[in-house]
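Lab notebook, design round three. We kept the backbone fixed and only want residue identities now. Task for the bench partner: fill in a sequence for the structure below.
Input C-alpha cells:
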C-alpha cells in the first residue's frame, strides 16, 4: 500500500516475528527470487499486530531492490530474516519523551510510539517529524491519530517550521530536552543532534546503514563508538545496533 508517493507499507503474516519484534529492530528482506539484486535489504519494523500475527514494514522505493519489493502482491511469499539488531530502551513511567524522525526514519519510531502509548498514553511525549518537503513525511496522520503532539519541519517551508527537526525541537522545547530522546533519520540529522545533545545520558538513535549480511559476519556496516576514559572501538550497526546511545557514537567530523 502506498502511503505517500514513493513510500510503501507491506504487511507480513509472521506470528513469531510479530511476537518477538521490538521497536528499533529490523527485518532483512530478500527482494527477488533471482540473484539480482544479490543482497537483502534492511527495513525497520514499522508496527506489529501481535494478536493477528502480522508485522509491517515501511520503506521508500530507492533502487532496484525496493522497486522489486513494491511489485509483491497479496498472498505471495517474502523471504525475511529477523527480527534483527537491538532496539530502543522504553521510557519509565513519568519520564518526558522527545521523538525526532527524518523522512522514512519515522518507521521504527512509529512502532516505538505505539508501545509507549500502550504503556503510558501519549502525554509527556513530543514528536518532531521532518523532511525536504511536506509530501515526503510519511505517517504524520497515524502519529496524530495515536494522540501525540506532532510538530513538523520542512527544508523548503512547505509545511510547519522551515528548517530541520533538530532546530524545531530546540525552538519548541526551549533548549531543555526531556529525560528520554529517541531519533532516527539521515546522518546529517543525527550529526546535528549530536552537536546539540551529544552528552545527553539517555538519548538513543537508530543508524541508517547499508548492511550486507545483517548478523555481524561482514564489515559493511561498521561504526565507531567512544566511551569516557576508553579507547574508541568499532561496532556492527546490524548486530550491535542499529540503536545506539548518542553519547557513545562518533558522528562528528
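Proposed sequence:
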Amino acid at each position: 500500500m502506498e502511503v505517500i508517493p514513493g513510500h510503501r507499507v507491506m504487511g507480513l503474516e509472521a506470528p513469531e516475528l510479530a511476537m518477538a519484534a521490538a521497536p528499533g529492530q529490523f527485518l532483512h528482506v530478500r527482494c527477488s527470487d533471482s540473484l539480482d539484486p544479490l543482497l537483502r535489504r534492511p527495513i525497520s519494523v514499522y508496527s506489529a499486530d501481535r494478536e493477528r500475527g502480522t508485522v509491517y514494514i515501511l520503506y521508500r522505493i530507492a533502487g532496484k531492490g525496493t522497486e522489486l519489493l513494491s511489485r509483491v502482491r497479496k498472498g505471495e511469499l517474502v523471504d525475511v530474516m529477523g527480527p534483527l539488531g537491538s532496539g530502543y530502551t522504553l521510557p519509565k513511567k513519568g519520564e518526558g519523551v522527545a521523538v525526532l524522525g527524518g523522512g522514512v526514519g519515522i518507521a521504527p519510531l512509529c512502532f516505538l510510539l505505539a508501545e509507549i502509548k500502550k504503556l503510558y498514553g501519549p502525554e509527556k511525549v513530543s514528536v518532531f517529524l521532518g523532511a525536504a518537503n511536506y509530501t515526503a513525511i510519511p505517517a504524520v496522520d497515524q502519529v496524530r491519530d495515536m494522540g501525540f503532539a506532532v510538530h513538523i519541519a520542512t527544508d523548503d517551508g512547505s509545511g510547519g517550521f522551515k528548517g530541520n527537526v533538530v532546530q524545531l525541537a530546540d525552538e519548541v522545547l526551549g533548549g531543555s530536552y526531556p529525560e528520554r530522546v529517541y531519533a532516527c533519520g539521515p546522518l546529517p540529522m543525527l550529526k546535528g543532534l549530536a552537536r546539540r545533545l551529544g552528552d545527553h545520558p539517555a538519548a538513543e538513535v537508530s543508524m541508517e546503514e547499508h548492511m550486507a549480511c545483517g548478523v555481524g559476519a561482514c564489515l559493511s556496516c561498521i561504526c565507531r563508538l567512544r566511551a569516557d576514559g576508553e579507547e574508541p572501538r568499532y561496532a556492527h550497526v546490524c548486530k550491535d545496533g542499529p540503536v545506539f546511545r548518542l553519547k557513545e557514537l562518533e558522528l562528528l567530523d
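Keep this in mind before ordering anything: The first strand starts at residue 2 and ends at 4.
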